[in-house]
Amino acid sequence: MERKQLGGHFSALVTVLIWGTTFISTKVLLADFAPVEILFLRFVMGFAALYLAAPRKMEKASRRQELTFAAAGLCGVCLYYLMENIALTYTMASNVGVIVSVSPFFTAILSRIILKEEKLHARFFLGFVVAMAGIALISFNGAAMKLNLTGDFLALMAALMWGCYSTFTRKISGYGFSTILTTRRTFFYGILFMIPALCLSGFRMDTERFFQPVSIGNLLFLGLGASALCFVTWNYSVKVLGAIKTSIYIYMIPVVTVLTSALVLKEPVTWMTGAGTLLTLVGLFLSEGKKGGNEKLD
């Protein structure tokens, strides 16, 4: 394996290990912050960090390219995280962590429809059925029956938005711009799109909650680590490996989330949760199985 590809795999691995714990950090912050407040603060911090890392301007993009940046910001920064954060107010962090891992399915489907990538085979649909069985087990979560239709549905819609984001990012990776600069431009549009939701939710300016050690730590983790760093490393992996190959690493997020949910939030891990996680991972691997060939960009 060449050095560049190895770097792409390493970047994706680091990304999912961090992202797998963001559900926990967000759940903690939800005690004092509204979902859209967390979203806005983390990406403003992320944008500022990326600007400091690369203060130069990006070369002028075409109108079509600019629209792609805007669409990526809307789907991957605004709608995905807004839906995910709201879902966390209704359902368990482990539920959200596993359900959003369905996003590789949406990535593969949208890549086929929009980017005209490889044909989906029977193995893909078999994997989808297996993964849905796993998600059902985790949603019911044993005797506790922790099913919440609103929260779980929002998590599923978040997965669809991430599939859209991955498709747009795949297109953006072919524009030839710096990964840091394209990520920053995507953040810019994402922040713009979330401002109306922020105004409607009633952003509170009471500063006391911002200076709580727990709040500071979690906001810094989400803003600098999970946003600024991870979006750059993820987009770099998409650029090097392709959208579908990179999305395979999302399979690891449910495992990280379930373990950290049990350790930090003391959420129960039943035999059904374990079986459901295993089925979901097996289903996703089956679904993303490829019969060779390279991904292409138009």
Automatic annotation (TrEMBL):
Keywords: Cell membrane, Membrane, Transmembrane, Transmembrane helix
Membrane topology: Multi-pass membrane protein
PANTHER family registered for this protein in UniProt: INNER MEMBRANE TRANSPORTER, S-ADENOSYLMETHIONINE_S-ADENOSYLHOMOCYSTEINE TRANSPORTER
Predominant location category: membrane
Cell compartment(s), UniProt: Cell membrane
Family: Belongs to the EamA transporter family.
Bilayer-spanning residue ranges: 12-30, 36-54, 66-83, 89-110, 122-141, 147-165, 186-203, 215-236, 248-265, 271-287
Protein name: DMT family transporter
